[in-house]
Amino acid sequence: MTSYLEFVPDDVWITIFEDLETSELAVIIRTCRRFRNLARKPLLKEIKWVKLQSTKRHLDFWKCTARRNRGLAGLVKKVVVEIGYDNPTTGDHAGLLRFERVHDLVFYQLPRFIFLHELVLRGDVVSPCLYMTLLKMPSLRSLVIEDCTYISILSPFMKQTPQTQLDAQWPQFDFFSLPLTHLSIHEITIPKGHYPHNETDEDGSGEEPKPNWHPLHLLTIPSLTSVSVTWSSSFADQYAYSGWWPFPKLSGLHIVVPVLTKRVVRSFRAFFRKLGNPLGMIIDLDIQSHDLTLAELGDMGTVGFQLNSIRRYTGPSDFLTFVNKDMIDGILEPLTHIILTSTVEVAIILPELARISSRLQVLHMSLSVWDTELLFAIRHLFPRIQDININGFNSFSNPGFLINLGADILFDLPNLRTLKLLPNYVSDYSKENNFHFDDLEGYILGWSRYCKQLRYVQFSRASWWSRRFESDGWKEYRD
């Protein structure tokens, strides 16, 4: 008897397989010959190499596949490398040797994925050898470097000898020839003895110059349209050393600042003056902490560091002072996302929120003391809000709160998708454990009549309500 599944077209199966997890696809390819052939494409679309031993086996497979079925290499679109790197000072020289061998094999294999679009390096080694490999990958468009270590070697590990290091020539590298459009660089460690330019070590000993080999010189690639970087003090120094990066085609910029210092502020001033304030550019700024005094904070607006060019902001509430409402409303792309990482008081934050563009879509914050007045202010100031996430909620014993929430606030927020009002302090957890609004599902169903986009509601850290589509019913989930 012929199964009706045989009449389902191949493109339908491929569409279904693309939504499955890798572990599920691994089972699918074992069911029949047809599924094995169809599931290969989504299964090989993204490859992740994590452990040395398994990565070595995978590389051996690709070496054999190159002889038998060259078409499989063309299916790979993304490779994630997380095999890890241990500094030789740890004493495990045998483990280091195994890493070096596998690392060389990885970079030997990468150019053989002829349609590779994205490469992610985490906890790996970055060296001039990487740049040479990138030149052999004309289809690559996205490069992500996270938590990596820079090493000054021009040839693969297995070809390194003391003599080759002494005889190494350090020519200028032409980053302009790389075709990348997206670049993400975060947390690059440079051990002593591997400085990529003529800069003295901490002990005062100098190095021979190695021109423009620093990984941050990847930012000079003229074809970049989106960039994500960690702007640390060392980054600020390298920016001052390297000169200006023009970014002629840049449309998206994400900056993470671990600690905002005066030195970082000065580099920001130079950078934003060079970048200008292009209309339509999406700029995300994430400030994790700062060591500026009140007087220095007051001078921020005079050094060219202004949030009127920022689309999404994450960080302390101190810097909201530099948002000018008139300038925000006058540009094409206003501030749309605010995630405050410091605890604030309603009386202090409300005047700052009143100066933000009415087109704000996402607002996250933590309150020292709960005040329902904040929700009324959000309804009035940001009618297009889509995501409200507030820590500090403690109206556990007020059953009338839900009635007022729906009738007086949510009724005027038709675009709202996420509503999270959570307790802030440990002392609130005992109240939270006993927290229960009668017929909460009934209230949520009522809110859905005018908040048709609402998908997620949470008042307790232990449970939440969600639905995927407007026509779906609400389901409660527990942690």
TrEMBL record:
Signal peptide: none annotated. Residues 2-52 form the F-box domain. InterPro entries: F-box-like_dom_sf (IPR036047), F-box_dom (IPR001810), LRR_dom_sf (IPR032675). This is F-box domain-containing protein.
